[in-house]
Amino acid sequence: MERLRTWDTRTQTHTPADRSLKQAFFQLDILKDKLGLSDTVVEKTAYIYRKTQERQLVRGRTISGILAAAVYIACRELGTPRTLKDIAAYSNVKLKEVARSYRLLYFELNLKIPIVNPMKCIARVANKANLSEKTKRQAAEIMNNITKRELSAGKDPMGLAASVLYLASLNTGENITQTDIADAARVTEVTIRNRVKELKKQVFKKDKVQNNFTN
Question: Whole-angstrom Cα distance, residue 48 to residue 73?
C-alpha cells in the first residue's frame, strides 16, 4: 500500500499518462473494497497496470477494462479465488471486454499464470452457500479424485467446484438446489447440470451419488 501511495503521489501532474494512472488507482481502491482484495493483490494489480501503460497497451482501450484484467491476473498469480465474471460485474465492464483485455495482457506481457486451486474455489462457494463441513469434506474428496484422474483440465474452476459441491450435498443429504449453488458460484444452472452429468459418467458410474442424483 505504501508503494501504491507513492505511485499515486507521482500522478499529481497533468500528463495524459499520469491522469490515466490516477484514475486507475482510484478505481482500484473501490474494487479493493467491493471484491475484498488484500493489499498484496492491490499492489500486484498496480504493478501490472503500470507495466501495461508503459507498453502503451491501454491506448484505444478503456481504463476500466484493462484494470479489471489486471486485477484478474493478480488474483490468479497470488492464488486469490476471484472469477472473471465477479471482477467484470464489480467493475461495471462487459465480460467480453474484460476477457479480451485479459488475453491481450496475457500474450503481450508474456505472462505465466498458474492454474486456480480448485480446493479454494470449493471453500469459497461452500461458504457463500452456507454448506456444512461434512459436505465440504465430501466435496474435497470428490475433487481429489477428479484431479488425480486429470478430469479438471480445461474446465472453469468455479463451475467445477459448484458441481462437485452439489454432488457432495446429494451424498450427505444436505438440502441445496442447483439454483442456490449456481448463485453462490456465479455460474449458470446449465453449467452445473452439464458438469454433473459429465462427472456421473466419468467418476460415479457405480457410486451411490449417481443413484441419489435427480435431474
Answer: 8
